[in-house]
Design a protein that fits this description.
This protein is mainly β and 211 residues long. 5% of the residues lie in helices and 64% in strands. The strands form two sheets. It has a twelve-stranded antiparallel barrel with strand order 1-4-5-6-7-8-9-10-11-12-13-14. It comes from Marinobacterium weihaiense.
Length: 211
Protein backbone atom coordinates (compact mmCIF):
# COMPACT_ATOMS: atom_id res chain seq x y z
CA UNK A 1 0.00 0.00 0.00
CA UNK A 2 1.50 3.32 -1.07
CA UNK A 3 0.02 6.14 0.91
CA UNK A 4 0.88 9.66 0.62
CA UNK A 5 4.64 14.46 6.08
CA UNK A 6 2.36 15.27 6.95
CA UNK A 7 2.81 15.26 10.73
CA UNK A 8 3.20 18.75 9.23
CA UNK A 9 -0.37 18.80 7.99
CA UNK A 10 -1.71 18.00 11.42
CA UNK A 11 0.40 20.54 13.28
CA UNK A 12 1.68 23.34 11.03
CA UNK A 13 -1.68 24.12 9.49
CA UNK A 14 -3.36 24.09 12.89
CA UNK A 15 -0.81 26.52 14.26
CA UNK A 16 -0.93 28.76 11.20
CA UNK A 17 -4.67 29.05 10.88
CA UNK A 18 -5.22 30.00 14.53
CA UNK A 19 -2.92 33.00 14.08
CA UNK A 20 -4.56 36.41 14.37
CA UNK A 21 -3.25 37.99 11.16
CA UNK A 22 -2.88 36.95 7.52
CA UNK A 23 0.54 35.71 6.52
CA UNK A 24 2.37 33.78 3.82
CA UNK A 25 5.22 31.39 4.57
CA UNK A 26 7.37 28.99 2.57
CA UNK A 27 9.40 26.05 3.78
CA UNK A 28 12.34 23.99 2.52
CA UNK A 29 13.52 20.67 3.93
CA UNK A 30 15.44 17.45 3.55
CA UNK A 31 14.81 13.98 4.99
CA UNK A 32 17.19 11.03 5.24
CA UNK A 33 14.17 8.87 4.30
CA UNK A 34 10.57 9.83 3.62
CA UNK A 35 8.07 7.96 5.79
CA UNK A 36 4.42 8.93 6.03
CA UNK A 37 2.10 7.27 8.54
CA UNK A 38 4.63 4.53 9.09
CA UNK A 39 5.16 3.71 5.40
CA UNK A 40 8.33 4.29 3.37
CA UNK A 41 7.65 6.44 0.29
CA UNK A 42 11.16 6.46 -1.23
CA UNK A 43 12.56 2.91 -0.96
CA UNK A 44 15.14 3.94 1.68
CA UNK A 45 16.25 7.01 -0.27
CA UNK A 46 16.43 10.57 1.01
CA UNK A 47 14.01 13.30 -0.08
CA UNK A 48 14.06 17.06 -0.65
CA UNK A 49 10.85 18.95 0.15
CA UNK A 50 9.32 22.39 -0.37
CA UNK A 51 6.00 23.97 0.51
CA UNK A 52 4.01 27.15 0.96
CA UNK A 53 1.18 28.05 3.36
CA UNK A 54 -1.17 31.01 3.44
CA UNK A 55 -3.06 31.85 6.62
CA UNK A 56 -6.03 34.17 6.06
CA UNK A 57 -6.07 35.22 9.71
CA UNK A 58 -9.67 34.16 10.33
CA UNK A 59 -9.19 30.46 11.00
CA UNK A 60 -8.83 29.47 7.34
CA UNK A 61 -5.56 28.36 5.78
CA UNK A 62 -4.46 26.77 2.50
CA UNK A 63 -1.18 25.27 1.40
CA UNK A 64 0.82 23.09 -0.91
CA UNK A 65 3.75 20.76 -0.28
CA UNK A 66 5.98 18.68 -2.56
CA UNK A 67 8.51 15.92 -1.96
CA UNK A 68 11.08 14.22 -4.15
CA UNK A 69 10.44 10.50 -4.53
CA UNK A 70 12.55 7.92 -6.40
CA UNK A 71 14.43 9.20 -9.43
CA UNK A 72 12.67 12.12 -11.10
CA UNK A 73 9.27 11.31 -9.59
CA UNK A 74 7.70 13.61 -7.04
CA UNK A 75 4.61 13.98 -4.86
CA UNK A 76 2.64 17.21 -4.59
CA UNK A 77 -0.12 17.92 -2.09
CA UNK A 78 -2.88 20.51 -1.87
CA UNK A 79 -4.69 21.17 1.39
CA UNK A 80 -6.85 23.57 3.32
CA UNK A 81 -8.40 23.77 6.76
CA UNK A 82 -10.45 25.73 9.23
CA UNK A 83 -9.10 25.87 12.79
CA UNK A 84 -10.17 27.31 16.11
CA UNK A 85 -9.21 27.23 19.76
CA UNK A 86 -11.34 27.59 22.88
CA UNK A 87 -10.49 27.14 26.56
CA UNK A 88 -7.26 25.30 25.75
CA UNK A 89 -8.85 22.93 23.23
CA UNK A 90 -7.77 23.30 19.59
CA UNK A 91 -9.33 21.66 16.58
CA UNK A 92 -9.38 21.81 12.80
CA UNK A 93 -11.30 20.32 9.90
CA UNK A 94 -9.55 20.08 6.57
CA UNK A 95 -9.14 18.50 3.15
CA UNK A 96 -5.93 17.12 1.64
CA UNK A 97 -5.25 15.79 -1.84
CA UNK A 98 -2.10 13.80 -2.62
CA UNK A 99 -0.94 13.59 -6.24
CA UNK A 100 2.01 11.99 -8.04
CA UNK A 101 3.98 12.80 -11.18
CA UNK A 102 4.31 9.15 -12.22
CA UNK A 103 2.00 8.11 -15.08
CA UNK A 104 -0.86 5.94 -13.84
CA UNK A 105 -0.17 6.70 -10.17
CA UNK A 106 -2.93 6.57 -7.60
CA UNK A 107 -4.26 9.82 -6.13
CA UNK A 108 -5.59 10.16 -2.59
CA UNK A 109 -8.27 12.47 -1.18
CA UNK A 110 -8.90 12.91 2.54
CA UNK A 111 -11.13 14.70 5.01
CA UNK A 112 -9.06 15.26 8.15
CA UNK A 113 -10.16 16.01 11.71
CA UNK A 114 -7.56 17.15 14.27
CA UNK A 115 -8.06 17.95 17.93
CA UNK A 116 -5.75 18.70 20.80
CA UNK A 117 -5.74 19.60 24.47
CA UNK A 118 -2.51 20.32 26.30
CA UNK A 119 0.17 17.80 25.30
CA UNK A 120 -2.29 15.32 23.74
CA UNK A 121 -3.58 15.47 20.16
CA UNK A 122 -5.57 13.12 17.96
CA UNK A 123 -6.25 12.82 14.25
CA UNK A 124 -9.01 11.00 12.40
CA UNK A 125 -8.99 10.66 8.61
CA UNK A 126 -11.53 9.45 6.08
CA UNK A 127 -9.85 8.86 2.73
CA UNK A 128 -10.36 7.52 -0.78
CA UNK A 129 -7.71 5.92 -2.98
CA UNK A 130 -8.55 7.00 -6.54
CA UNK A 131 -6.66 4.63 -8.86
CA UNK A 132 -6.23 5.56 -12.53
CA UNK A 133 -7.48 2.13 -13.61
CA UNK A 134 -10.86 2.80 -12.00
CA UNK A 135 -10.62 0.79 -8.78
CA UNK A 136 -11.14 2.68 -5.54
CA UNK A 137 -10.52 1.88 -1.90
CA UNK A 138 -11.91 3.67 1.14
CA UNK A 139 -9.81 3.85 4.27
CA UNK A 140 -9.66 5.45 7.68
CA UNK A 141 -6.73 6.45 9.84
CA UNK A 142 -6.52 7.30 13.53
CA UNK A 143 -3.52 8.56 15.46
CA UNK A 144 -2.90 9.63 19.04
CA UNK A 145 0.14 11.75 19.90
CA UNK A 146 1.65 12.87 23.18
CA UNK A 147 4.28 15.63 23.30
CA UNK A 148 6.62 16.86 26.02
CA UNK A 149 9.34 19.49 25.65
CA UNK A 150 10.12 18.70 22.02
CA UNK A 151 9.69 14.94 22.30
CA UNK A 152 6.65 13.09 20.95
CA UNK A 153 5.21 9.60 20.77
CA UNK A 154 2.58 8.63 18.17
CA UNK A 155 0.46 5.54 17.68
CA UNK A 156 -1.28 5.23 14.30
CA UNK A 157 -3.81 2.72 12.99
CA UNK A 158 -5.42 2.18 9.56
CA UNK A 159 -8.96 0.86 9.11
CA UNK A 160 -11.65 -0.09 6.56
CA UNK A 161 -10.02 -1.26 3.27
CA UNK A 162 -6.55 -0.68 4.77
CA UNK A 163 -5.22 -2.41 7.85
CA UNK A 164 -2.22 -2.14 10.14
CA UNK A 165 -0.62 -0.18 12.99
CA UNK A 166 2.67 1.57 13.68
CA UNK A 167 4.41 3.56 16.40
CA UNK A 168 6.69 6.57 16.04
CA UNK A 169 8.85 8.40 18.57
CA UNK A 170 10.89 11.50 17.96
CA UNK A 171 12.47 14.68 19.21
CA UNK A 172 12.72 18.08 17.55
CA UNK A 173 14.44 21.37 18.25
CA UNK A 174 15.26 24.63 16.50
CA UNK A 175 18.87 25.81 16.03
CA UNK A 176 19.33 29.33 14.64
CA UNK A 177 16.03 29.13 12.80
CA UNK A 178 16.59 25.65 11.38
CA UNK A 179 14.24 22.93 12.62
CA UNK A 180 15.93 19.59 13.32
CA UNK A 181 14.14 16.37 14.20
CA UNK A 182 15.06 12.74 14.72
CA UNK A 183 12.31 10.12 14.51
CA UNK A 184 12.15 6.36 14.95
CA UNK A 185 9.39 4.57 13.04
CA UNK A 186 8.40 1.02 14.00
CA UNK A 187 5.78 -0.85 11.96
CA UNK A 188 3.69 -3.11 14.19
CA UNK A 189 2.28 -4.76 11.04
CA UNK A 190 3.50 -5.23 7.47
CA UNK A 191 2.29 -1.87 6.19
CA UNK A 192 4.54 -1.85 3.11
CA UNK A 193 3.37 -5.22 1.78
CA UNK A 194 6.90 -6.61 1.48
CA UNK A 195 6.59 -9.26 4.19
CA UNK A 196 8.58 -7.21 6.72
CA UNK A 197 7.86 -4.89 9.62
CA UNK A 198 10.01 -1.86 8.89
CA UNK A 199 12.08 -0.07 11.52
CA UNK A 200 13.77 3.18 10.53
CA UNK A 201 15.61 6.12 12.09
CA UNK A 202 14.95 9.35 10.17
CA UNK A 203 16.71 12.73 10.32
CA UNK A 204 14.83 15.79 9.05
CA UNK A 205 16.02 19.38 8.55
CA UNK A 206 13.71 22.21 7.55
CA UNK A 207 13.47 25.99 7.57
CA UNK A 208 10.42 28.22 7.29
CA UNK A 209 10.50 31.73 5.85
CA UNK A 210 7.75 34.23 6.68
CA UNK A 211 7.05 36.55 3.74
Amino acid sequence: MKTMTKHLLATALLAASTSASAELSVNLGAMSDYYFRGIDQTADNGSLTAGADYNFGNGFAIGTWAAQLDGSEFEYDLYGSYSAEAQGFSYDLGYAGYFYSEDGATDFHEVIFNGGYGPISAQYVLGTEDASHGDEADYSFFSLTGEYKGAYLTYGSFGKDYDGDYAEAGYGLSVQGVDLSLAYVHQLDDLSGDGKKDKELILTLSKTFDL
